[in-house]
Amino acid sequence: MNNPDPDDLRKQLESGPLERPGFTSKLQRDIEDAIERKERTKPKVGPVFCFAGIGAVAAALLLFPWGTLHTQSEAAPVADAGLTTAAASVSHSPTPITTALLIGLRTEQEPAEAQSGRSVKPMPYSTYRTMLIAPVRGQLQLTSEGPGILMPYKQNFWKIDSLVHRTKTDEFHYLSAHLADQPAKPEVFPDVESEQLNRTETLLFAGNQYLSIAESEQTLRGNVPYQADRIWVRTLPQLKEGHTIQFYNKPVDKNHVSLADVYGSNANVDSTLASLSSGLRGDLTSQSWTIQREPGRWVGKVAETPRASSTAPDSYVLHDFPRELPEKVVNHDELCCTWSGIQSTWPQATDALTSPLGDMIVIFEKDQLKFYPYGQAPGSAPQLTLDLLPGEKLVMAQWATDHYVEEWIDKVGRFLEPTLSDKLARAAE
Asked: For residues 247 and 135, what is the distance between their CA atoms, to the nearest angstrom?
């Protein structure tokens, strides 16, 4: 077999996307063979040609798209370790981070002790916080942080707060949506003295317009207890419109988005649900579903609920919905690499995010968030590390690029509390 010419290798590397992702073993062998061939012929050729040949191979190595190293298929996880070693052996600077990340997190809280005279125990509820991580004068920083979920919606920022309303017999933990530059408006819920009621709303996902919300209720009417759980996907305006404050007797809540609404009427959602329903005791409809986080991606889950003829309280069991979520639901949810590739470099990773420009990788590792510039050599220290609260989970990841980075730093700094490091950096400018 003829040894490949280094110039041909370079042409292959510059000709566009590779037919196979990543730094293949064949390509590595070809480069090594080319180097060996040049070494063997060194006494027979002039030094100019010798260095030209080696320079072509070096150029091929430098021009190779190292950003695709971890795009190997799940069927070949063993190759990831070799690719990581190959990447580490190349001397090049990592991609500078120019992207900003607005991240929302949720922490479940244990309820306080029940008030005297109440038979219904308080329910667990969640608290939330939002952080903006952005480059300031070339250095990645936590620029702002504050309670609640701050999210971009159309041309404005909106805030989702978890508020509480208590009476002698009732306790409501509910979500309130409002423009970020306006205060939250507490709601007033009816108080029925003959019943005791606990109700919680939990935000599970926040996109740029869609929200996933779980609702739970415990009621005692006389001596009759009642418990119900529901799960929905709503738009931000639907959340703002108000709340269904009672599950009893299964009142119909039309204030949500169905799977058919998201995927379209021609997507055969009902036929997909029918195929999933085989052997189930409950119903699968397009009405009750959610957006749930799995390692490295958001996925759709459909809720199995009691049949309409059933006397059982509202409840649900989640099942995988075998379709990718539309881009309008999760506008950027792509990893730079396979999940097995992530774990080969960060074995303790539980989740990961990649910026739209491919300049930042965020690794969830135990109780920390670690931020790396893409292309940084494996084993290097992260550019920024932030502590997570115990049990804290991802709710939202929104990205800003180009001129929006500075705009977000300024606006988010008004709606959340700027950090001391950001204040000092701004004062030095």
From this structure: 46
